[in-house]
Structure formats: structure tokens, C-alpha cells
Write the C-alpha cells for this entry.
Amino acid sequence: MEIKAKRALIFGLGRSGVGAANLLSRAGAEVTVTDMKPEEELSEYMRRLSPSVKLCLGGYPRSMNGTDLIVISPGVPLGIEPIVRAREKGIKVIGELELAYQFLKEGGQGAEGKGQRVTPRFLAVTGSNGKSTTTTLLDLMLRKGGFRTLLGGNIGNALTEEIQKAVTEGKAKAEEKEDLNLSLNLDLADFIVVEVSSFQLESINEFKPSVATILNITPDHLDRYHSMDEYSDAKAAIFRNQGEEEFLVLNADDPQAEEVISEKLKVKGEKPGLFYFSRTNRVNGVYLKDGSLYCYFPGSIPGAQPSALIDADEIKIKGVHNLENAMASAAMALLAGCPPDAVATALREFPGLEHRLEFVRELDGIRYINDSKGTNVGAVMKSLEGFTSPVLLIAGGRDKAGDFTQLRPLIKGRVKVLVLIGEAAGKIGKALGDLTETVLAADMKDAVDRSRSMADRGDVVLLSPACASFDMFRDFEDRGEQFKEIVRGLS
């Protein structure tokens, strides 16, 4: 992919847009970034752009004449009119993830010279829920095993930006050794560990991870996709380019994912090696048996036999969904060649991530849990399954066309009080309000105060919204931080 002196247009000035624009500019391209938002709403990102990058804000350009390459950020749908027109004109359209993959695969040719070509292996994680935990845990396992990694993608740091940080760090080290024959594709890492969303997978071209996993498929983002089939197809793209030398890890306990993948694999020519993780059955991969995790990879790891990896009680992160995340990351790490003892060590040490069933505090015998990342119905189902104590559930926000009735069995059996906030409060109340005591709260502070007043010793106050955050908060992290601040201020 020749970049130098080409004209590139970036759609979407966010984290991904900044990373893509700066990488292309550094490689010698003439770069313009466009966004529908006005300049005053984008100042945070504008400050991070290379001075050579041009801007077209407050609307997309009417003409794309002379444009050689378009890179779209994940939040920009492929079906918008400017992108459709560009494709009709034969302009190449890819996503930021694909751009990063191309640079690392092809040697990062650019203004700084080609240098040493080293292609790290990509390990990719997707699914409706659990992506960030699995990706972070996988990265830790590999580092415990002595491998060098780069971590990026949907996890919150654009991969194109992480590449540039690693290049800068590598150049600084090289200057100390007076070895300046370097390029954008410096010997950066052994593995690129990437969290991949369905939005990012819409715009891949050649992206081919050495090991990939689809953790689960539950209804999500149906405000963007026309159907579950369309959403599932986007997820399945993660193994579109995989062949016999690559591996795909699936959740044997998720019938939706199994059905989708089976149909896709039937019509696929060259197929990846297929392995599983399971809480309920012995599988080729990683599975739970008699309270321990076992691993078994026949035909892939020479001489492999079923062997115990770790007792489930030793895994630091708790909950049904985290057990699945642990098994998925372990399977991927082992298939990538990570030593089993490094995998087990990481499982014993990893404390979990913020806003994912994060313990905030206990006050008057009541535990407060921040699960702000529970932005869809499937995530909330997994969270509730892990509690045996009565739960006061704070839910609501901006609806993503979720089917809240799927929560009915768990609400009836485990939720003592349902405290609703945000735009979707009425819809959730209509779907679930007949099952348990239900109250409406004006904002997060009101929700916490009402929950506390109705909770008894031994109860759990759980923020797990089943919705997006954008009606009341900047993002799910802002929502979680406000919840924690309010809870910590209780006396």
C-alpha cells in the first residue's frame, strides 16, 4: 500500500481519526480529516493532530476528486452517502484497524525509509461482551511469558497511535546506539493484541489475525444494524481471511455464536483451526471440569494431552462471565505459544478492569458494584448471574434497540429493586416493572440515594445499565466515575 505523496481523507476526528491521520502524515501522505461536528466540539482531538494535517469540519466535503484513500473511524457507518459515492468512484475505503494492519504487514513504507521489516502476529478479540477484559488479560499472559506486545484497538487506544508511540520509543533507544536505519515498521513487538468491534470489522480488507476469538453474540448496536443477522455477519468477519495456518476460538456454550460461525464456515474455502472454551462440556481447547480449568489442543500443540491449568478458585477475577473471559484468553495465549505457567500466573494476578463489575465499597453491610460497561442486555444478564445476594439494579440510559424482556427471569429471581434512569427508563419499566419494586430516579445521585434507602445489610447495589450512556454522560467511563464518586461520598 503506497502512501507517500498520496491524498488521504479521514472520516471521523476521534481517537482513531487522530491516530490514522498522524500515521499517514508521518508516512508522507497529504492528509485531510473531516467530521460532521463543528470545530468547537473537537478541540481536544485537534490539538493532537500533526500540523501538516488539514481539516474539513462541520460537514463532509462535497467533492472527493483527487482522493486516493479514505480511512473511516469506527463510528462512521459505511452506508453514508459520501462513502457510497467514493466507492462507486473506485476510491479505496478502509478502516483505521486495516490501516494499522497494512503498515505492519507491508513494512510501513513511508518518508522515513523502509528499514528492517518485521511482521508481528495479530491476536484479535471480538464479541458482544467481555472484549476488553479478555484482551487485557491475554496481553498480560503474553508479557508474563516473555513476549513483547502492543495493545490497542477498541479497548480505548487507537492501534495506529500505539504504533507511533512504539516507533518513537524505539528511535530513542536506537539513537543511544547510533543506529538510525529505522522506519515506521521498526521491530515493534512479537504480538499485536487487539480488541475489535463489529464497527471496525465492517471496514477490514486483508486483516488476518493469527488467533481470533468470538466470545459471544448477543443483541447489541441494533440502532445501527438492521437485524441480528447483519450484526452477526459483522462479527464473523474476524475470521474471513483466516486459513489453515490460523486459529479461531469459540464459546461452545453460546448457541447464537455457534450457529453463526457454523453457517459461515460451511461456505468458506480454507478454514482455520477451530478450538473452543466451555464451562459445561469437555472440548478441544479450554474447559471447566471438577472446579479446575483444563486445556487440550490435539493436533496443534505437539504431544498435547488434557492437562490441568489452574483451579477456578485461584482466578482473581470473579463471576460467570469472567470465567469465560479467562478461558478464552487462556486458549488464545496457549495457541500463540505462551507457556502454561505464564498463563496461570496472569490468571492469579489480574485484578480486572474499571467499570466491569468493579467493587467500589461496602457501607453498612451493603456492597456497591460499578458495572457501567454493561451497555447491553446480554452484559447485564451475565452480571446478574454472578450474584446470589439480593440486588438493587440501577439501569437505563440511551436505548440501543435492546430487548429488555430477556432480563425477566433474572429480574424476577435476583433483583429486589429496579432503579431506572435516562431516556430508556420508561421502556425498561414497561418491560420489567411488574416483576419487582421499580422506581424512577432523576439522575445518578438520586439513583444511588434511593438505592441506599431501600437496601438492607447483605444487599448489592449494582450499576449495570443495559444501555448506552450518551443521554446523560460523556461515555460509559464518565458514567462509572460519577457513580463511584457519589458512592464514595456516602457517609
About this structure: Residues 108-117, 178-182 have pLDDT under 50 and may be disordered.
